Amino acid sequence: MIVSISIVIILVLAVLFIGYSTLWVKFSHIQLGDPASKNVTVVQISDLHGQTHFINGSLSKMVNHVNPDLVMITGDLASTKEQLDKVLKEIRQIKCVHLFFVPGNHERYGLVQSRFQLNSDQDYEAILRSIQDAHINVLSNREYPVYIGDKKLLIYGFDNSLYGKERLTMRVEDLQSFDVIIMLAHSPSIIETSLQQHIPFDLLLVGHTHGGQIRLFGHTIGAYKNYHVGLKRIDKRKHFYINRGLGNSRLLPIRFACSPEIAVFKIGL
């Protein structure tokens, strides 16, 4: 009898822990540069997969609480058009002048009869237009300069929603004229490209892995076990961040010890 009760208690605690891990959003706060100087607040959200509401509130409410100067969205907003409409309605509630987006693989693929298939070029362009219509700057292998005070920031978005699509369309010499360079992509495979091409950046933000969704003893279990989670410093200036994302994959609708994440960066100018 005692053993049976113990098993029930363990199962209940496990269910509660999985529910907490799946639906409680963790804020990751990162300071880059001199905290005593003027700071710009950058928020990264990624891999929503249609998820906009959590135990600790709606997406827009949580982001607005941080009062961001820049919001970066690194792909995979939704799996269906109905989800996309809901997500964009929520993002419109975010109070930030500068919102940026790079496409993920789930913008390239659509769900048809419970199976994913590559969207037509027309459908893909329609998805990007709907995102732009929500006052979000879509960066698909292009740059966007932002001026904060007397500082020049460059936001550059790579399209690696399909492997081999990413391109740097600026000269490295032109990049170096900016005070801060923030680069966005969906897949962490971009780090290899950036290092091979000696691309300068201060912060490179990606998603895609979901942190594996299942972590044991601080290690990712499954397909993305060779990727780190969170921040990695490459050298004195370069920082590379892999976001755990907010939603879950269709094949694995739960998380374990890998909470959804909103990353908040304070970058000294």
Automatic annotation (TrEMBL):
The keyword Electron transport does not apply. The keyword Glycosyltransferase does not apply. Gene3D superfamilies: 3.60.21.10. The chain crosses the membrane at residues 6-25. Coiled coil: none annotated. Residues 41-211 form the Calcineurin-like phosphoesterase domain. It holds the Pfam family Metallophos. Keywords: Membrane, Transmembrane, Transmembrane helix. It comes from the Bacteria. This is Calcineurin-like phosphoesterase domain-containing protein. It comes from Paenibacillus allorhizoplanae. The gene is ypbG_1.
